[in-house]
Amino acid sequence: APRDPKLPPSDLHRPHMLSLSTSALGLAHGVAPPRGSPSISMMAKATGKDTLIALAEEQQIPMGFWDPLKLADKDFWSEGNDATVGWLRHAEIKHGRVAMAAFVGYCVQSNVHFPWAPFNSIPTNIAPAEQWAQLPEAAKWQIILFVGFLEVYSEHSFILEKYGQKHYMKGGKPGFFPDFDTMVHPVPLNLWDPLKAYKGASAERKADGLLKEVNNGRLAMIGIMGFCAEARVPGAVPALSNIAHYAGDPMAPFAANFHLPGFAS
Fold first, then answer.
1. Which DSSP category does 120 fall into?
2. Neighbour-count burial of 75, counting CB atoms closer than 10 A to its CB (0-12 exposed, 13-18 middle, 19+ buried)
3. pLDDT at position 199, please?
4. CA angle 222-226-228, nearest 5°?
5. How many Cα atoms sit within 13 Å of 109 on the Cβ side?
6. pTM, full prediction
7. Can you tell me the distance from the alpha carbon of 190 to that of 60, in angstroms, rounded to the nearest whole number?
8. How confident is the model at residue 255 (pLDDT cuts 50, 70, 90)?
9. Neighbours of 218 (CB within 10 A)
10. Per-residue pLDDT tens digits for 157-200
11. Own/partner pairs, 26-31, CB within 8 angstroms, 24+ separation
């Protein structure tokens, strides 16, 4: 564009500097872009790989859209690219949520001693992976079966349809987890938003919250892997040198006192 003769040279770059400052501020505080930004409307219209590109713009990722393995171009199980992207998005959200719970659990489990059996017999001055190894087999089965139940409950089309949703590989909302209202036995709190903090929230607020959740989940995945690495290989993460170490394999949770039928001890 031609230069406006009324503007001094120093003012020519101010819009660009303001734009960069706004982006840096949003990244530093981990917040979503300003409401009404072009990327939000782009996200609503995008499909397939374009959804991930628009999502990266909304999250203000420094390197932009990053997919070194080209997963966004794949067609998993011959279901189409839209289904593949839905699976990738849901998998990242789910892994991020698990990692956030694991990170908090790692900190709590190392400092809080529960008075109930069988936890009251497990010391807190050992690594959480060692604490898991010391759990009775029945306790481990209860935890694993409960997680399996949550998986089935959140994936079943019968449950999703009761909330007007579809499976995330069939055009549904990635990250959606149904309430427990459909259960025969009453459940006082839901797994997702148990305190109803987002009840009645606008679509924009929910979208902003999801962006923050994904970013926090990514950081938590790095954090929990840092804990596991330092616990197994002392000195791997110098900032965590004060945590308890673990002589076993944190990536093989079934190796100690928990053997599946048909697998060697």
1. G
2. exposed
3. 84
4. 120
5. 18
6. 0.76
7. 31
8. low
9. 16
10. 999 999 999 999 999 999 999 999 878 777 888 888 888 888 88
11. 26/60, 27/60, 27/62, 30/212, 30/215, 30/216, 31/208, 31/212
